[in-house]
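Hypothesis: this fold can be encoded by more than one sequence.
Test: take the structure tokens below, design a sequence, compare later.
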């Protein structure tokens, strides 16, 4: 890995969301560590620096519109009155949809299916459950 003098892109900030470009990877991809109010919430990758910046700007816009980023997963409709929304990977790829029912339980439905994949008693706990489901899928 070589140092490319990326200080101008390091620590870009938008209302609590920051990213720090890490040294270029051996396969020539770029990786940025994402933090929200100082807590690590995931990472993004791109073939070039402009791709990282574009992904960061998109995530910032989604969070300003009520999204929540944790575990490299964005849940839209999290911080507004929607109580439902798309679930995306940090790079913007659609993962599925979440909603809260009348009993205030939250449910996640994987894109392309109609069955509930996991449920939890709050959006925060559903976010964790979705991440856990993805972790099991990749192991």
């Amino acid at each position: 890995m070589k140092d490319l003098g990326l200080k101008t892109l390091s620590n870009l900030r938008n209302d609590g969301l920051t990213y720090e470009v890490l040294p270029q990877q051996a396969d020539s991809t770029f990786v940025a560590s994402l933090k929200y109010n100082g807590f690590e919430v995931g990472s993004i990758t791109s073939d070039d620096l402009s791709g990282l910046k574009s992904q960061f700007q998109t995530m910032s816009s989604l969070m300003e519109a009520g999204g929540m980023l944790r575990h490299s997963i964005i849940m839209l409709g999290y911080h507004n009155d929607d109580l439902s929304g798309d679930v995306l990977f940090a790079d913007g790829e659609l993962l599925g949809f979440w909603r809260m029912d009348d009993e205030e339980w939250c449910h996640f439905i994987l894109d392309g299916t109609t069955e509930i994949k996991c449920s939890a008693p709050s959006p925060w706990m559903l976010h964790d459950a979705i991440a856990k489901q993805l972790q099991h899928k990749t192991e």
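The first strand starts at residue 12 and ends at 14. The radius of gyration is 16 Å.
Hypothesis status: open.
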